[in-house]
Design a protein that fits this description.
The complex is a heterodimer. By secondary structure, chain A is mostly helical. Chain A is 66% helix and 5% strand. Chain A has one domain: ABC transporter involved in vitamin B12 uptake, BtuC. In chain A, the strands form 3 sheets. A two-stranded antiparallel sheet of chain A has the order 1-6. In chain A, helix 3 packs across helix 10, helix 4 runs antiparallel to helix 10 and helix 12 packs antiparallel against helix 15. Chain B is α/β, with parallel strands linked by helices. In chain B, 45% of the residues are buried. In chain B, strands 6-7-8-3-9-10 form a 6-stranded mixed sheet, sandwiched between helices. Chain B has a 4-stranded antiparallel sheet with strand order 2-1-4-5, with helices on one face. In chain B, helix 6 links the parallel strand 7 and strand 8. Classes of the chains: A mainly alpha, B alpha/beta.
């Protein structure tokens, strides 16, 4: 790939390999072992890794490059989901029209919100986007019920027109597919004690993730991306350099809105329903957390942050008291109960507490997020190795 | 009529009359200095040229076009660049990127969705930026973060950024403020050589009389919001009105 530099190509290949091998990498423990609890290699969660990865990559184009902190990105995710479900209801269960429409609608919606919100910067911009997202949530939840099906959420039914779909004779709800490949199709590979699951839907998401990642590399390295970073550091100078910052920030906002729309469309493609809660401010906050946790303004960070949060959400929330008792059954009863009582706060429904502590530790000790942690380890490793051979060389090549 | 023509400009802030019927005529290709005691309205006047302030009355014409009511980036695209009193640079970017951005802004205009080409593919821009950095003697610092440079270097970087756009008019707001003596001298040399080579019209606001008299070909003295004298440097030096403006306060 000549259009991106060697280092970036390596990063892209790295992500591609991880994405292809995810069913193996995320399933390190035998299915029947006690540690199978920590396996994340099942289709549902892997899809979510990829989808939230796309969301975070898009958010990072806005926040990481221009520094404009949007607190309303979940609105675009929700709009994307609703559009996709409508396509499933009206046209067919093919995911392509659904995804195309969700990206377009989210793009238009973000153009409108961005146009208004970007009149202000800093905290005022964040508040404006937050207000818009909450308004969208309220609209979806009650006012626009004919369009969104309110509280229940928008679902496909047997009575939907689906004008391009063949007549449904089975009497079951149809499933989303891509030219006959059903998203839920999963092939399981049994290797000894391990079960590895390969799911069509996940690989579709992974392909979109790779495209999204590649485009974000291109944007980061382009003159456009450079201007966006200039917006973050000094708008006054940029204005006096002949640059109109508004269209730049608006373009970044719309691009990241379209990424969120794509994520929403994919989410509905994996499971054809859309609810208003997807647009709530907690969902927007989660996107911000993912990006900061992984490393704002870095290419790989947001994807890692998304994976990190989704992993904790799904794995820690499943560890309930029964599981804990199972783990510590070998202890004397009194001690067992005390330990379970303490851990109970951090697992199961209390997983947010664990996430909160992790977030605090990372923000305090690694302000650059997980990426900073990795580059520190890399530097330390280089220094250690360099100490044996040549110290000056290690100094002259700082890690990026 | 010169390249920048200022007629009857008035500006008040509340009850304070900052500028009172200011007339200026900046000749093309010359270095024109505006001097005056503190609070004379020098910076206010400069802000009226770049779209930051809107005068209450009067006209500011640049190259036959009014500069009033248009935005800073539009004024820049017409060919006016500005160096600030405290250097305005992209401090979180490298020196190299700092120099590239104005080059791209000059080539692509105020907005271009140039999102899929690589910065490093644009060889012509790189050449231009490199030449500029050699001119201001910052080429060996091109990979440094702009924020980690000395004040003098930042100032020279800012000047390089402005000059890389080949402006028709360069506005300098105290370009040597806060510089070490040696840096001041090299800045004077730099500005002189640029003026000789590129014939860029410059308007300089300056406190340092040494700088003013070694650079300017024409000087306007501003006091209490009006131009009291406008002449060549030799005549300004001993002018009684200028002495009064600078020393008058001390006599009271």
């Amino acid at each position: 790939m000549k259009s991106i530099s060697n280092a970036d190509t390596r990063t892209l290949y790295f992500v591609a390999i991880i994405a292809i091998l995810a069913p193996f990498i995320l399933n390190p423990f035998p299915t029947d072992s006690g540690l199978a609890q920590f396996n994340a290699g099942y289709p549902d969660l892997m899809q979510r890794f990829a989808i939230y990865g796309i969301l975070a990559i898009g958010f990072n184009i806005l926040f990481g490059l221009t520094g404009y902190l949007s607190f309303g990105h979940a609105a675009f995710l929700g709009v994307g989901s609703y559009s996709a479900v409508w396509m499933f209801k009206l046209l067919s269960m093919n995911i392509i029209p659904a995804i195309i429409l969700s990206v377009i609608v989210a793009g238009l919606f973000s153009l409108l919100i961005g146009f208004i919100s970007l009149r202000r910067s800093g905290i005022y911009f964040s508040i404006l986007t937050l207000a818009f997202a909450q308004m969208s949530f309220a609209l979806a939840y009650s006012v626009l019920t004919p369009l969104t099906n309110g509280e229940t959420g928008l679902q496909i039914t047997l009575n939907d027109p689906r004008i391009f779909a063949a007549e449904n004779v089975s009497g079951n709800l149809p499933v989303t597919s891509l030219f006959g490949m059903e998203m839920r199709d999963t092939w399981t590979l049994n290797l000894g004690a391990w079960d590895f699951q390969f799911n069509i839907g996940y690989y579709i998401c992974a392909i979109f993730l790779l495209i999204a990642f590649y485009l974000s590399i291109r944007i980061f390295r382009s003159p456009f991306g450079m201007m966006l970073r200039a917006v973050k550091t000094n708008q006054t100078r940029l204005n006096y350099t002949g640059i109109n910052t508004r269209p730049y920030t608006l373009a970044a906002f719309v691009i990241s809105g379209m990424y969120a729309g794509l994520a929403g469309g994919l989410m509905a493609s994996m499971d054809p329903l859309a609810g208003a809660e997807r647009m709530q401010w907690t969902a927007s906050g989660e996107i911000v957390l993912m990006t900061i946790l992984g490393g704002t303004g870095t290419l790989l960070g947001p994807v890692m942050g998304a994976g990190f949060i989704k992993y904790f959400e799904n794995i820690f929330s499943k560890i309930n008291d029964t599981v804990l008792h199972g783990w510590f059954a070998w202890m004397p009863d009194g001690l067992e109960n005390v330990i379970v009582w303490i851990l109970h706060l951090f697992t199961g429904k209390g997983w947010h507490l664990t996430l909160g502590i992790m977030f605090m530790l990372i923000v305090i000790f690694l302000p650059g997020g997980l990426m900073e942690g990795m580059s520190r380890i890399g530097n330390w490793w280089k220094r250690r190795k360099g100490g044996d051979e040549n110290t000056s060389e290690a100094k002259s090549t700082p890690a990026e | 009529m010169g390249i920048l023509d200022v007629q009857n400009v008035n500006k008040s802030f509340g009850g304070l009359k900052a500028l009172h019927n200011v007339n200026l005529d900046i000749e093309e290709g010359k270095i024109h200095a505006i001097i005056g005691p503190n609070g004379a309205g020098k910076s206010t006047l400069l802000n009226c040229f770049v779209g930051k302030l809107m005068p209450d009355t009067g006209t500011v014409m640049f190259d036959g076009q009014s500069l009033l009511g248009i935005k800073p980036h539009e004024i820049n695209q017409l060919g006016v660049s500005r160096v600030f009193q405290t250097p305005e640079i992209f401090s979180e970017l490298t020196v190299w990127e700092n120099t590239l951005i104005p080059c791209f802004a000059k080539r692509d205009g105020s907005f271009a969705l140039n999102a899929l080409s690589r910065v490093s593919e644009n060889k012509d821009m790189a050449e231009k930026a490199e030449k500029m950095l050699v001119d201001v003697d910052l080429i060996n610092k091109k990979d440094m973060l702009a924020s980690s440079m000395s004040r003098g270097d930042k100032r020279r970087l800012e000047m390089a950024m402005c000059l890389s756009q080949n402006p028709k008019l360069l506005l300098l707001d105290e370009p040597t403020a806060g510089m070490a003596r040696a840096d001041t001298q090299s800045t004077i040399e730099l500005l002189k050589s640029i003026q000789k080579k590129l014939k860029i019209t410059m308007v300089i606001i300056e406190h340092d009389m040494g700088v003013v008299f070694s650079l300017a070909q024409k000087i306007s003295v501003l006091a209490q919001g009006t131009v009291i004298v406008e002449d060549v440097p030799e005549k300004i030096k001993g002018h009684p009105k200028v002495k009064e403006a600078y020393l008058g306060e001390a006599q009271v």
